[in-house]
Amino acid sequence: MTRKQKRLSVIVGGLAFLGAATGLTFYALGQKASYFYMPADLTTASVQPGQRIRLGGLVEKGTIQRGQGATVAFSVTDTHKSVKVTYTGILPDLFREEQGVITEGSFGPDGVFVADSVLAKHDERYMPKEVADGLKAKGVWQESKSE
Fold it and tell me: Topological domains (Periplasmic): residue ranges?
């Protein structure tokens, strides 16, 4: 092999390695992606059982039910549609009815959303961006004007 051929084979091998590394990186990132949905968006979305998503909205009034141990069942709503959610773990201190929440998890085979994390808004003037945008688009939520 001539010197030029060796150099060309090293360059081609390096480019092939970089291409494979880039492809594997994008594949891994695609597997970890978690898309955000409001309850009404789920009627048109094709979410498979077991697919990780983020579900956001307001905790529906009168739906919080404490189960055995640290298991809690509640519904997340955008006032157009509600989704039943179960969560096992310690809820944030600010978790309560009619407050903004983002849950992350997947749907079980029974159609109930099984959350493995729950995020609640941190004060009365803050709403998670995804939830606020979704509720504003549906005309449900308006920002309060601070004085």
Answer: 29-147
Contact 56, 103 (CB under 8 A): yes
Binding residues: 122, 126
Q: Phi and psi at residue 83, in whole multiples of 5°?
A: -130, 130
- Average pLDDT, integer, range 58-71: 88
Binding positions for heme: 122, 126
Element holding 86 (H helix, E strand): strand 82-88
C-beta separation of 100 from 144 below 8 A: no
Domain residue ranges of the chain, discontinuous segments joined by +: 1-33, 35-137
Non-local (6+) Cβ contacts of 140 within 8 A are 78, 79
Tens-place pLDDT, residues 28-42: 776 555 678 888 888
